[in-house]
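Quick bug: Gem-associated protein 2 output formatted oddly.
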Amino acid sequence: MPEIPDIPKCSPDLCASKEWEDSFITYFSETRLAFLELDSSDGPSVSGAVKNSCKPGISFEPQIDPTLTMIRKMDAVSRAATLRNYIDMIQSFDTLSRNDCLWLFALCVTVELPLDAETCASLRSMLRKCSTILATKSEMDDEVVMLNILVAISGVYFGQYQK
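Here's what came back:
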């Protein structure tokens, strides 16, 4: 077995509190439930189009924010594949942009459970990457907040972090 290093720890004053994580996970669960109810409704997708494998490419020109219409056009397999591809893409980044975090958040909201092994492994990679970036931070900024959100999603909600 390869030796896998521990998940890096961030400065205590930059890490999310247990109370915040609990509150956020409740919000995230409610958001996932609302999306599931909307997506499984009998009505057509928001755009009226048939669901397909529409997914963002590895390099966006220009970068666009995810929309409900875009996400609803994807089927469950495409959403999971897009999430895995996006997580693979960020592995070489030193920072995450707002757009990167929006896409990761949106895809995590919409990915169906139970997760397959490949998606679980990708979420573990996202947790490691976000924790690694967070460990380099010395002061609070927007990226720290976004990283804490992604750490809570991958680590707490999807169970990839065993404390």
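Actually, after a second look the formatting is fine. The radius of gyration is 16 Å. Closing.
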